[in-house]
Design goal:
Number of strands: 87
Distance between the termini: 37 Å
Length: about 1000
Amino acid sequence: MFSSLPLLPATPAYSQGMGKSLPSGRGQPVVDGPPGMRVNLYSGNLFYRWVDMPTSSGGYPFPVLYSELNYNSLLACSGKYVSSWFGPGWRFGYGISYRKYGEDIFILWPDGRDIHYEKRGRRFSPPAGVHDTLTYIGADAYRLTTPDGTVYYFDSPRHRHVTRIEAANGLALTFTYDGRNRLTTVQDAYGRALHLTYDNVHSLVTHIRNDFLNRSLELTYDDYGRLETITDSAGQVTTYHYTRPWEDDAARGRQDALCSLPGHDSDDQRSHGNRIYERPSSETPCIWEFLSGVTLPDGREITLSYNASRQVAAIRGSYGSWDFSYGKDFIYDEYDENTGVVYRTVGGQVRRTRYTFDKRGRAIRVEDPLGNVTSFAWDDADNLIAVTDPTGGTTTYTYDDMGNMISMTDALGNTTFYAYAADTSRLLAETDPLGRAWRYTYDDNGRLTGITGPNGGTLTRVYDAQSNLVAITDPLGNTTTYTYDAWGRVVSKQSPGGQEVQFTYDAYDQVEGIQYPGLVTFDLDYDDRGNMILFGPDSEQPFHYTYNLSGLPTSHRYPSGATFQFNYDGQDRLEQVLDPQNGLTGLTWNDEQVASITDPNGHTSRFSWDVADRLTGYQDPLGRETTYMRNARGEVTRLTYPDGTSLTYDLDALGRILLETDSDGQVTHYQYDDVGNPILAANEQVSLTFAYNALNLPTEITVLHIPSGQSYTTRYEYNLLGQRTAMVDPQNGRTEYTYNADGWLDSITDPEGGVTSFVYDSRGRLVQRTDPNGVILTVVYDGWDRVTDIRYQDGGATLFHETIAYDADGNPTHIVEGGTTLDATYDLLGRLLTVQTSDDLSWSYTYDSHGNRLSQIGPDGTATYTYDQADQLLQVAQDAQVSDYTYDPRGNLTSQEIVSDTTDYAWNDHNWLAEVTTRTGDPITYEYYPDGLPLSRTTPDGHTTLYIYDGENLLMEVDVESAQVEARYLSMPAALDAWLAMRRDGQTYTYLTDHLGSVRGLADT
């Protein structure tokens, strides 16, 4: 429970702005275009981000030493007051500086934000929605502190660039500048550095080198000083193209446009050392030079166009002989400045999304292509205070003076509260609608040191001087420790039980080896772009992978050499999958949604989507269609199957199912508590009620069988970690659980007092289990965690023994069980081809391209198999014997005729088996819990067995007529089908399972 805890509430910002947006960066919607590109729907400016691999951050709370270049079309003016180390419009990821305007200060950020701090007396006042604190610390020297404790220093007497960024934990990045005030080095606390080299004519960066990662970038520029190419360490080149809008007829006459930023004082040229800034006047005309195209390393082209107002009008792309669009056109209302519209043309159909803005440019209304409207409300600090969804449900938020969200009230009125340390964004407490609180503590450096749950359990965290996390102690006192190398990388992790895992790294700061206890080492390798290309234990053949320039996998080679290949279209959409047997699966697309999938047999499944990209229908290869009706929020409210049967859903304001009604009018009811836990699930056969503890773990589950009126309650107890310590079944039988320091199950004591104990190896794999009567299970594994030997013994007697050998891909090829040997071979897709036993019995198999078995040749003759286009088995013919199979329109098996012996099957509207009728004509019927687990089975003689579960594992079988328990099962908690023993008629039986977990026998103990 503690490991999955979110430490901070999600910020309910509608979107992140960039460039010429609100100073707070909130409220203005952006639309994603091609990779790295975004368009601000209010201002119309383009933001493009190019990032190389970052260095591992060590104890830093943010990425360090990475090469990031940001382009902003609103800065693409050669007269703009911005750092032009990379040409007009571009800023370096560490290009943070300030400028003065009178007594006011403007902080310029890499993404294009220009934050104005107004001098008021002896303090600087930030704009609404900005909670950073600017402090004067000396002549032309300032310190900027963010709510999370990060501090930016601007304290050089020679320039106005950032000199140091210090995290709250004390780790810092330092910046060095040359005599021309150009950034030359960024260095972290470990001595790792990023180096920048410039040309001597235009002071433009030509090389960026990361010595620690052995990576470098080469940059070139055109004759106008505009960034033209970036070449990475792998030799991949990205090329940029530009245009001058005033040369277009639509933009002619705008060459006199003035830079919108205020002027600057006379020392700007000296401060920045760049000839572009040799214009001191605030009336300097801008020479707009926009990014008009990008050529990606694989040759794909992205083109951009702008309207007369210097806003992005279109983004287009093409690759080879295909024309494609990344799907974004941006058209702005000439007459209503408070409206922005996005048009996308998909399959000849125009889809429109309309945005409405308030006077501050914040989105207050968004209408999707179907006309569904979502509304937003903001306070004066640009905090989102309300969201009303298309169905009318409203979620509200409140904030403190630092902009921290202090409450969130959902559409049903349930409120979660948040508390913070004074003048920071450090979360101290989160209290849910039921009044249960998580609490957090920090040290003086702002590092999280403790988490206390609502059950009173506390997790503690310890750090070293470099702010590396060195120890975590859970609420039970179990401690996990970490050690680090000189670069802040984890080199070992030791569990509370003393098991140590070690890590090694390559020259590029990537994990290349993981050594587990017992000297089992996994090797990893990477390509020049950081994609993993090899993985496997050093004692086995590894897996190999290749990728395209977008980082998408193009091949997956198994240890045997069997290879899957993946092909993509110009928009990086998966188009073909070629399997090792040359079977081809094809996909077609409708914009960003899959339109069809054709299997290797040529059978096609089709998908339908509405104009809001929501799935509305699925058609199988036989033309049978399932449809989905949705509400304005996009949630399914009706599911209709090909035969006309349907399920209808009534939802609450949070989208949870309240009522589910099938075609026969049968209703399933659901209720929830204020934090979303289900407390009631009931249909006409059964009612389930639930109670929970402070960690939202079930403490009591009551099953009421409505036809009989019988009630069965199971109770659970937990430790401070949320691990189950006891279960009390409906017969008041108490089962207890203990765990070792690593959290692995140590023992189970059943209601009769019998103890089952467990032993694990250093990797946490079960190697021995002893049941209450001395039956011992031992298990041996290979490097891939595959079982190679499994044995059950009772005293000196062997009850079951199996050894397994595998091929390189993990298929079992040699199995020895009880003196019988089985040898098997497989094709490149892992499909069974031949089986040979030590008794001289053999079988062979063939398949079609999609994996359907076509024939089986064995001791009893040859069987052939026939299928329809939906891959449903229609017939099996063996010699003169023929078996036929039929299906309903939903694909459920309805009859099976084997040599005139017919069995019929009936299904309910959930596609759960409802009835089986054999040749006698007497049916066996089944009823179900609301979640689909079998509730009861009634035989032709009227005998009904009721099933009670522990999670999804069967716990008890009850004879409904007598209300007597017929059988009780012991299983591993939270492990599906992990049965250990069964007790029936006063006798306990141990399950004997093979390497697949299949039951092979019972031991009467």
